[in-house]
Every structure is written in C-alpha cells, then in structure tokens.
Amino acid sequence: MKNKGKVQLVIALLILGIIIISSILAPLLAPYDPNLTNMASRLQGPSIKHLLGTDALGRDMLSRVLYGGRASMLLALTATTLSMLVGMVLGVIAGYYGGVIDWCITILANIFQGIPGTCFMIAIAGVLGPSIQSLLLALVLTSWAGFSLIVRTEVLCLREEPYIEGMRCLGSSDLRLIIYHIIPNMINNTIILFTTRVGRCVLSIASLSFLGLGVQPPTPDWSVMINDARMHYRSAPHLIIVPGLCIFFLLLSINMLGDALRDRLDVKNQEVLEC
C-alpha cells in the first residue's frame, strides 16, 4: 500500500509538473503567437509546420494548448484559496465559540451548500456579466460553505482536547489558542481538502467558460477552445480531443495528488493501515 501511494504521488507530480512548467514556459515553447490568425491554413490536421494542426481561424493549436492552462489553473488556485480563507475563518469562529454564532454560521453555510452549485454560478455570472471578477465571486460563494462546515467539525473536536483546556487555564488568549494550537492541528485535513477542491474548481471554470460565462475569447483557454470547436467536431476532431485531454490529465493529476496526500497526512487512515 505504501509503495502504491508513492507511485501514485510520483505520477501525479510528474503530470502536474509537466502541465505547470509547459504553461509557465509557454512564451518560450510556443512556436507561434496563440492569437495569430491565418485563414489560408484553417482547419489543418497535424503536420510538421503545425504539430497539433490549426483551428477554424488558422491559429496554431500547439501554441494555444501551451497557453491554455494558464487561466484555468490561476483562477482555480485563486478561487480555492479565497474560499478556504473565508471558510476557515467562519468555521473556526463557529466551532470555537459555539452558541448563537455557531448556529447562524452553520445555517448560512447549509443554505449555500443546499443551492445547486452550477446553477448558482451560472446565475451569478449571468447577472454580473461574463468576466474574471464575476467568475471568481461565483466560485467563492459556491465553495466556502464546504470548507466552513469541515473546519467547524475539526474545531469542535480540538477545543475539547486536554491540552487546549490546560493552555486556557494557564491564561492563553482565544486568539493564541486558535493560531498556535488549533489551526496547526487541522492543517493536514485542510491541505487534503484544498487539493480536491482545486480539481472541482478547474472543472467548474471549464464548464462556465464552455458556456461563455468564464474566460472570454480570444484568451487561449482549453474550455474556450472546446466551445469554439463544436461546429467542426466531424471535420476536425483534434480541435476537441486535444484540449479535452489536457483538462482530463490536469484533473486526473490533481485528484491523484489529493489521494496520495490523504494517505500520507491522514493520521486515522495510517492507523487503520498499520492495523
């Protein structure tokens, strides 16, 4: 089981590393400007000149694929980080102080979690208009509740631990207990949750961009490329297959990384495996 987890972690890091490095080095690796159009060479298949062919506007697919992961990954990391920060703050407050505060935050989180995420994101992006800001707002509003409820549960367990009671008797303030003793003891589960939510966020961004409510053309983006290629899926299937495989491998690597981190960082899971 341990060897399997190590292999899974190596494969996940390898795939994710290739995607991230190729996106960062896209200006150096891309043979053409990703937005350069050439109608004379539109809808060409893979060739020596264009290794992955060209799209309906004659743009080089390899160049657009190399640039295409930038927007999705940056947005996913930003939205997940903001969601985690909001959810962690509210979850810690609810779990540590309890009472009416806990009741209000839990009810609010349950309301947001009960709303269908995709429909809510489409509604927000539709009302505010398609833009990066509305996309980020939609992702944060639909993701913070999950972080909040899980963090709240962790804090409810940790605040009753004997060492917390001992530190409280020694005069430690609530802020000190939260920052130095509660948050560090739940950071492992938070990291695991973060990695899994990044994958969901990438998929949500791809869905909204495909519907025209996320990343806007002519920005190179894998989901936008799939949307643009719908009319040509019979004559040029590579226009859909290539960016679709990129999204698939990105999600696969993130999920594999989350599973590997869970096996390594989850203390309860390690105890079960040792038994």
Automatic annotation (TrEMBL):
Similarity comment: Belongs to the binding-protein-dependent transport system permease family.
Keyword rRNA processing: no
Keyword Repressor annotated: no
Compartments where located: Cell membrane
Coiled coil: none
Ranges where the ABC transmembrane type-1 domain occurs: 69-258
Keywords tagged on the record: Membrane, Transmembrane, Transmembrane helix, Transport
Designated name of the protein: ABC transporter permease
A Pfam family of this chain: BPD_transp_1
Membrane topology label: Multi-pass membrane protein
